[in-house]
Write a structure and sequence with these properties.
Helix content: 25-40%
Largest sheet: 7 strands, mixed
CATH topology of the largest domain: Aspartate Aminotransferase, domain 2
CATH architecture of the largest domain: 3-Layer(aba) Sandwich
Number of strands: 12
């Protein structure tokens, strides 16, 4: 039987079949009509499948096999750092003293958890070169918005209300201009030069007295280190602006370089990327924000502080931008990140960067003969190829990505950044073996050869997945979001 012909759980339904056994109720039945307004009650029983426990277990097990994740296969998603999540992190996050806490407990009863949070903040301060860190933001983009709101409050407190613009490179993550807009700023684009780096002359042109900040990740989205970063910082600071560091690519510089030493005033970190918290599918995540001294007054409150031997929350922060997330952030992800940092230690984090950079350069050079390489230079943790050569043969980058599904790989990021035609952005991370890297490279080489010799097999891919080639226009305009009986 082909995968797509396997019956769905509704099709296995047989009237009267039961998949559960519950004890008799030992409390009086409750009339829901007395608890809920009439309009909230169903008039008919929901039409649910009637199946056995075995059927339902097989159903969900089969669905789980259709998912892809870092535990099931290579996930080279450029700029997202989808690396292995060590299982020791999961064990520690499930310790009773962490997993069974309630966020409304008195501070005196959760001193261990607060100590972990405070210690994590101190580690992140050292890693980034910042002066203070908040763990509140729930993810990277949330951290971006938090940092920009602090920059906005800083300028307003200084009476500098004319600073309404945020500068972003043309290779920036899409969240950068989006976060700036949500924070009330206008965005201005600065061009990249022929080497894939920020064009200093264009930066001088766009920066002025209305500049609130420059948002940047280093290395940038092309996987290239902005070697003129100190001069860029001088340009922005001389104009009265601040530098914001997008931490999506921090995996490339751990224990090698610190954003604070590059001149950045604010940095957000993706604990669910760099520090091995699980992520994907919309969550969970954690996006702590670090700041230099002059922005500390504007940190979200409450701020976790150490008072003698006690850890407590300081709510007396009159210039704070306010709370940005209920309670204290995504605590479980913070526990996982803390476990990772303590397990790795300084030497381990340094090795992370060295191996991530080595893996990326190894793959780039192996693939160079078969795809266009827009920037032929040493990369950091990720690299960018172009499918222009294949496009001339009638095979698009999208086709290449779909063909990779037939080999069991999650495709890399495609068509981003926007300043590279037919872009393919690959980030192998440090956790993959040479055998895995070689197998992926061999698949890419085979696809490149297929584009020359048998392009139809690529154009019509995927061939082995549960769902074949979709009508993408129809899927976007008329998505089918629930099962409907025929």
């Amino acid at each position: 039987m082909h995968k797509e012909d396997q019956p769905l759980i509704f099709e296995l339904s047989t009237e009267g079949r039961i998949g559960y056994s519950l004890p008799e109720m030992d409390i009086p039945e409750i009339d829901l009509g007395e608890l809920l307004p009439e309009g909230y009650l169903r008039e008919e029983e929901p039409e649910l499948p009637e199946v056995s426990e075995l059927d339902i277990m097989r159903h969900y097990t089969a669905l789980s096999k259709r998912n892809h994740g870092v535990d099931s296969g290579f996930y080279p998603l450029g700029s997202c750092t989808m690396k292995y999540n060590p299982k020791i992190n999961e064990n520690v996050a499930r310790f009773n003293g962490f997993a069974h806490l309630h966020p409304l407990q008195d501070e005196s009863s959760v001193q261990g958890a607060l100590e972990l949070m405070y210690d994590l903040q101190e580690h992140l301060i050292e890693i980034t070169g910042m002066d203070e860190v908040t763990l509140q933001p729930a993810a990277g983009a949330h951290g971006e918005w938090t940092g920009l709101m602090m920059i906005r409050s800083y300028h307003e407190a200084n009476g500098d209300t004319k600073r309404t613009k945020v500068v972003v490179p043309d290779s920036a993550h899409g969240t950068n201009p989006a976060s700036a807009t949500v924070a009330g700023f206008e965005t201005v684009t600065v061009k990249s030069d022929e080497n894939g780096l920020v064009d200093l002359e264009d930066l001088r042109r766009v920066v002025g007295e209305d500049t609130a900040a420059l948002m940047l990740t280093n290395p940038n989205t092309l996987g290239l280190f902005e070697e003129n970063i100190l001069e860029m910082a001088e340009i922005v600071h001389s104009a009265g602006g601040k530098l914001y560091y997008d931490g999506a690519n921090l995996n490339a510089v751990l224990s090698k370089a610190r954003p604070g030493d590059m001149g950045f005033d604010v940095v957000h970190l993706n604990l669910h990327k760099t520090f091995t918290g699980p992520h994907g599918g919309g969550g969970p995540g954690s996006g702590p924000v670090g700041v230099k001294a002059d922005l500390i007054p504007y940190l979200p409150k409450p701020v976790l502080v150490k008072n003698g031997d006690q850890y407590e929350f300081d709510y007396d922060r009159p210039q704070s931008i306010g709370r940005v997330k209920p309670y204290y952030g995504n605590f479980g992800i913070n526990v996982r990140a803390y476990t990772y940092i303590r397990t790795m230690g300084p030497d381990g984090l340094k090795a992370v960067t060295e191996n991530a950079v080595l893996n990326a350069n190894y793959m780039m050079r192996r693939l160079e003969p078969f795809f266009d390489l827009p920037f032929d230079r040493h990369c950091k943790h990720e690299f960018v190829l172009s499918g222009k050569r294949q496009k001339r043969l009638g095979v698009r980058t999208l086709d290449i990505a779909k063909r990779l599904l037939d080999f069991g790989y999650h495709p890399p990021t495609i068509y981003f950044p926007l300043n590279v035609e037919e872009c393919i952005m690959i980030e192998p991370t440090e956790t993959e073996s040479k055998e895995t890297l070689d197998a992926f490279v061999d698949a890419m080489i085979q696809i490149a050869k297929e584009a020359e010799e048998n392009p139809e097999i690529v154009q019509e891919a995927p061939h082995t997945t549960v769902i074949g080639r979709l009508d993408e226009t129809m899927a976007a305009r008329k998505p089918v979001l629930r099962y409907q009986k025929q």
